[in-house]
Amino acid sequence: MGATWIHGIGGSPVYKIAQEIDSMKSDEPWECMDGFLDDPITIDENGYVLNPSLVDPISILFKNLMDFAQGKRISIGDVICAKDGNGNGSVGSFLRKGLEDYWELESRKLNGHGSWNGNGNDSWNRKLLEEAIFAMHENTQRTYTSANDLYNLDYNAESEYVMCTGEEITIAKGYSSIIESLASVLPSGVIQLGKKVCKIEWHPESEVGIIENDHDDARPVKLHFLDGSTLSADHVIVTVSLGVLKAGIHDSEDSGMLKFNPPLPDYKTEAISRLGYGVVNKLFMQLSPEFPDLDQFPFLQLVFHQSDSKVKNPKIPWWIRKTASVSPIYRNSRVLLSWFAGEEALKLETLSDEVILDEVSTTLSEFLLNSSDSHEQCNVNVTKNSSKVDLVKVLKTKWSNDPLFLGSYSYIAVGSSGCDMDTLAEPLTKSGSHPLQILFAGEATHRTHYSTTHGAYFSGIREANRLLEHYQSMGYN
Ligand SMILES: Cc1cc2nc3c(=O)[nH]c(=O)nc-3n(C[C@H](O)[C@H](O)[C@H](O)COP(=O)(O)OP(=O)(O)OC[C@H]3O[C@@H](n4cnc5c(N)ncnc54)[C@H](O)[C@@H]3O)c2cc1C
C-alpha cells in the first residue's frame, strides 16, 4: 500500500538490510519482479495506439529536461533551458518552456509546415498529441514528487535532490520484512503500538530552571497519549509525517492533532508551513477471471487530450484524466496498478468501490476496445471481442484521510527551500541544563533524500548519533 521500491541500490541502507536478511528472493511472485515496465504501449483516449516515432522524441525530451533540472546533465542540445527564463522558478514552468523551445526548433526545421495528422485521427494534430504525451510524463512526475501541480515544485531544489545510484528494484519479500528485521533487535515491549501522542510538553531554554518542580522524575519532556496515559523522557525523537506536523500547527486546540506545549518556535512552524507535502495513492484492480489473454494486457501508458475540445472523450471522468499508466503488477498478473496524485488522489479516496470499478472499466475499454486495427498493429488485441474490460475488485490507499499520515511524502514547494528541511531537523533545545529534549527525524527532515524510506532511515541514524555524541561528550561511553 505504501513503499515498494528501493530507489537505487547503490548506497541504499534498505538494500543492504534486504540482502542481509535474504529478502531479495521469494518463492511467491512479487510486484514488478520482472522487467515488464520497460516495454510500454502508448494509447490515446480514443483508442489509437501511438507510434514510438511520435512518442519517443517527447519521452526523451522530457527525460533530458528532468535530468537537466536535477543536475544530471549540463545541456539539452538545442533546447533552450536557461534558469533565467524559468518563469516562477518551478519545475512545471521549466518543463513547459522546454516543450515550447522544442516546438520552435521543430517548426523551424519544417519551415513552418508543422501541422501533421497522425494515426488516422484527423482531430489530433501532431502538436496536440505531443503536448498530451508530455503531460503524461508530467503526471508520472507528480506521483514521484507528490506535488499536485508541478508549478508548485521548486526548480532550484530539484538539483539538490540526490538519488542513490544503480538499479531501482522492488523487495521480493516486501518492505515489511525490513521493518520486522529492524524491530527484532529491540527488547520486547519497547515498541508500543496503538499509542497515539496528542501532546508533547517540553521546556524551552528559558524555562529549564523550573523542571525539577514540574515533573516528579525531573525528566524534561512529557508525552501525553490519547488514552490519557503519560510518559516522561529525557529525549524524544519525533518522526511523525510533515502532514501531521502541519495539521498540529494549523488546527484548533481541541482537534485531537499532535500539539507541542509550549508551541514550536516560529522559525520551525514557518518552515513546516512552507514545505510541500502532497498525496499519492495507489489503486489496485483485479481483472475478471473471464478476461481472455492475460499475457496480452500491456503496460499501458495513457494519453489524454489537454485542451477542451471535441476529441476529449466524455466517457472518461476527470479524476482518471491525470493517470499516466495502468499495468499488471508483473507479467500475466490479473492485478493491475495505477498511481494517482494530488486532487485526483483525494477524489479517489472519496469514491465507492462500485463507482471506481465502473468508471475505470469504462476508461480502460475506451483505450483498449475502440480501435482494433491499431491494436492489432501493436498486438493489443486481447479484448476486441469483449464489450468492456471487466474488473471485479479494487483496493485503494487513503493516505490523505489516514490521521497518522495525512498525506504521502514531502517536496520542496515554491517559496521554500532545502534550508527549511534543515530547520525542521534542528533539535530543541540546543543548550541549557536539559539539551536535546525534542529531536526531529523522518523523511521530511532529510535535505537530499526526502520522500524515501532510505531518507527516513538516514535521518533516524542522524538523530541517534546526535544523542550518542552528546552523551560521549559528557564522558559516557
Ligand atoms: C503510496 C506511497 C508509495 C511510496 N513508495 C515508496 C517507494 O517505493 N520507495 C521509497 O523509498 N519510499 C516510498 N514512499 C515514501 C516512504 O514510504 C516514506 O518516505 C517513509 O515511509 C517515511 O518514513 P517516516 O518514518 O519519515 O514517516 P512515516 O512512514 O510517515 O511514519 C510516521 C509514523 O508516525 C506515526 N504517527 C503519526 N502521528 C502519530 C501520533 N500522533 N502519535 C504516535 N505516532 C504517530 C505513524 O503511525 C507512522 O508510523 C511511498 C509512500 C507512499 C505513501
Automatic annotation (TrEMBL):
Q: Name one GO cellular component term.
A: cytoplasm
Keywords recorded for this protein, A-Z:
Cytoplasm, FAD, Flavoprotein, Oxidoreductase
| The organism's place on the tree of life at top rank | Eukaryota
By what name is this protein known? Answer: Amine oxidase domain-containing protein
- Asked whether the UniProt record includes Oxidoreductase among its keywords, one would answer yes
Instruction: Give the InterPro entries listed for this entry.
Output: Amino_oxidase, FAD/NAD-bd_sf, Flavin_monoamine_oxidase
Q: GO molecular function, one example?
A: polyamine oxidase activity
Where do the Amine oxidase domain residues begin and end? 1-468
State one Pfam family annotation.
Answer: Amino_oxidase
- Work out whether the entry's keyword set contains Cytoplasm: yes
Q: What is its subcellular localisation?
A: Cytoplasm
Which family is it part of? Answer: Belongs to the flavin monoamine oxidase family.
Predominantly, its location class is cytoplasm
Q: Which cofactor does it need?
A: FAD
